[in-house]
Amino acid sequence: MNIKERLNRILTTLPEGVKLVAVSKFHPVESLQEAYDAGQRIFGESRPQEMTAKYEVLPKDIEWHMIGHLQTNKVKYIAPFVSMIASVDSARLIEEIERQAAKNNRVIDILLEVHVADEETKSGWSKTELYDYLDSGILERMSHLRVRGVMTIATNTDNEQIIRRDFQTIQTIFNELKPRFGDYFDTLSIGMSDDYPIALEYGSTMVRIGTAIFGSRNFL
Questions:
Q1: CA–CA distance from 29 to each of 35, 77, 83, 208 (Å)?
Q2: CB 26 within 8 A of CB 217
């Protein structure tokens, strides 16, 4: 089965209104072009330099989503063109995105990454840290970024109940925060290749799927 066939098979499983981010990190430009030719327009990368290199050679109507942990000193590389930074996990990163977006006269969409999984290695705000930051009012002074929603990665486990617990937790946080931000706060980004059917049960509006589209990654 080729990339087009795998992509179309996944699209048939997604309800109307759910966006598909094709996780293209570590995959060659040729694979992205194949997915693009099949109609895919949103691609997710985790390394700024790799994203920038692909941006330069691929069609300009692609929406690029930064989905990996982003260091503050790398924001400047993607600020001119990135559509969404989906892994915003600290006040320092928010400040740098605001600064670089202003330099480029842009408003950049972001997702707040919340840590709900059992693994300590996963990044993201704790719920308490995030709510304390939001209550501080600092974010409301940022005019070059727009909070579109929240994102998380569920615990890496075969135990479906733990995965469901994680998705239930982030769904609750999303629902609690929505009144604070209003209509444009519309993105609950949960679900990857192995668990996205479960994520859809918990209101996911954006799934991030790589392996099921592109096959195993070629780590560079």
A1: 10, 19, 19, 18
A2: yes
Q: Looking up tokens 């060659």, which residue turns up?
A: 28
Assess if residue 220 is contained within a domain: no
Q: Other CB atoms closer than 10 Å to residue 158's CB: what's the count? A: 7
Q: Whats the size of the chain, residue-wise?
A: 220
Which token pair is 167? 């998705």
Low-confidence ranges of the chain (pLDDT < 50): 220
* Domain that residue 203 falls in: 3-214
Tell me how far apart the alpha carbons of residues 154 and 197 are, in angstroms, rounded to a whole number: 13
- Please give the Cα distance from 85 to 78 (Å, whole number): 9
Task: Judge whether 219 lies within some domain.
Answer: no
Residue 13 lies in a domain: yes
Q: What is the pLDDT of residue 118?
A: 82
Tokens of 53: 């290199």
pLDDT for 208? 98
Sign of CA dihedral 172, 72, 43, 140: positive
pLDDT of residue 217: 65
| Domain annotation covers residue 114 | yes
**What CATH code is carried by the domain that includes residue 70?**
3.20.20.10
Q: How many domains does the chain have?
A: 1
Q: 204: which 2 tokens?
A: 């996911």
